[in-house]
């Protein structure tokens, strides 16, 4: 009897308090946090996914210390954004990951040999990144800062190495990981993400359709072997590197398992299919599509669109692939098909020398801002 009464009273007190707060209108004053962000990978395309998140944190008044290789072009506009660069200040970084891959280097097979070679090159790149991070002197800077103005959180990239997680261990910080591509299979266990290689393909594999029996087998083997390689090869190298630079013994894999709060992944079920997920995984694919990006259409492209009375198609193989390295006969076949259509064509073509075609119908551009272009062509509200 007593308990029932008490429950009723306490419940009504709570409801009154809650309503009172609601009607008072103002939420309790939001408190800014001190965020340590560590993004040592050199790729501009990776940092493009990071920047909108950092911008929003800065806009909301959090204090940010950002150790990064890539320079944030607008960092100076925020007084609460401190940029600690690993690269040289004057380095041109905007094109480091654009137009890199000629079609001749395309690897059509996803054989296990290819997958493990890719793993190994990512691993080597990761170790170089770690060396640069610890040689930069910024790690010492943030340790010192932490003594007087403690950090609350480590934001970092989950991609090809974990040496930076020693900071989370020493400062005892929760970690929010960001995967700037689809999440690598060796990170699933960190957040208990169910792994079902019988029909869910990992980032590494990428077969075109539903898996055949052989493809399933490849998907299964790579899922298991990559995890072991990452744990006992990459993470071991990370631990050794931390021990060399900081003189402490840390197991970065254990730090990741115990301190990762959640992981943002640059992927989306509309592209990758749905999959079983843990609550610690948040798909943020499209986070880099900002309203500013929707407005950055170069004048020559805008003019070509304005003057067009027939529909336009945009032909591009993405930022990295150089379609200008295509074989002559394949190019001729594509051109022949396009010439027959009542269309005008905007074509991403990287080389100085362009195919000799009707300039009225074909516009070749070295690069095109895809979102701005689609917004102009399709008026895709509410994205634009
Ligand atoms: C953010 O930095 C400013 C300037 O150093 C400081 O006054 C403020 O207390 C910091 N905010 C937090 C949450 O520590």
From TrEMBL:
Listed InterPro entries: UDP-glycosyltransferase, UDP_glucos_trans
Keyword Flavoprotein assigned: no
Gene3D superfamilies per record: Glycogen Phosphorylase B (3.40.50.2000)
Signal sequence, start to end: 1-32
Pfam families for the chain: UDPGT
MF term (GO), any: UDP-glycosyltransferase activity
Highest taxon of the lineage: Eukaryota
Alphabetic keyword roster: Glycosyltransferase, Signal, Transferase
Family: Belongs to the UDP-glycosyltransferase family.
Protein name: Blast:UDP-glucuronosyltransferase 2B1
Taxonomic source organism: Drosophila guanche
């Amino acid at each position: 009897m007593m308990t029932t009464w008490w429950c009723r009273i306490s419940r009504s007190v709570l409801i009154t308090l809650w309503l009172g707060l609601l009607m008072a209108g103002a939420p309790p004053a939001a408190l800014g946090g001190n965020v340590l962000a560590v993004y040592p990978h050199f790729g501009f395309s990776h940092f493009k996914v990071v920047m909108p998140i950092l911008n929003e944190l800065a806009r909301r008044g959090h204090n940010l210390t950002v150790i990064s290789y890539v320079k944030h072009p607008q960092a100076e506009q925020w007084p609460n954004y401190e940029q600690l660069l690993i690269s040289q200040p004057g380095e041109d970084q905007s094109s480091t990951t654009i137009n890199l891959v000629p079609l001749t280097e395309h690897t059509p097979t996803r054989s296990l040999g290819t997958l493990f070679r890719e793993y190994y090159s990512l691993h080597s790149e990761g170790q170089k990144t770690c060396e640069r991070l610890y040689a930069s002197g910024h790690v010492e800077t943030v340790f010192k800062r932490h003594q007087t103005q403690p950090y609350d959180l480590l934001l970092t990239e989950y991609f090809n190495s974990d040496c930076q997680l020693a900071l989370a261990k020493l400062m005892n910080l929760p970690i929010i990981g960001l995967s700037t591509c689809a999440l690598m299979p060796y990170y699933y266990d960190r957040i208990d993400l169910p792994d079902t290689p019988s029909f869910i393909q990992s980032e590494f594999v990428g077969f075109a359709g539903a898996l055949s029996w052989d493809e399933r087998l490849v998907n299964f083997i790579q899922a298991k072997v990559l995890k072991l390689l990452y744990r006992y090869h990459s993470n071991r190298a990370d631990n050794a590197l931390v021990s060399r630079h900081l003189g402490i013994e840390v197991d970065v894999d254990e730090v990741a398992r115990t301190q990762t709060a959640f992981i943002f992944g640059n992927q989306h079920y509309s592209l990758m299919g749905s999959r079983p997920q843990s609550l610690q995984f948040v798909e943020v694919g499209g986070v880099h599509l900002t309203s500013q990006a929707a407005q950055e259409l170069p004048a020559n492209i805008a003019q070509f669109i304005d003057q067009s009375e027939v529909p336009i198609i945009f032909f591009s193989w993405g930022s990295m692939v150089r379609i200008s390295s295509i074989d002559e006969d394949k190019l001729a076949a594509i051109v022949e098909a396009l010439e027959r259509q009542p269309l005008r064509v905007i074509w991403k073509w990287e080389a100085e020398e362009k195919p000799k075609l009707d300039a009225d119908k074909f516009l070749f551009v070295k690069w095109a801002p895809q979102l701005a272009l689609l917004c102009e062509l399709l008026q895709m509200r509410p994205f634009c």
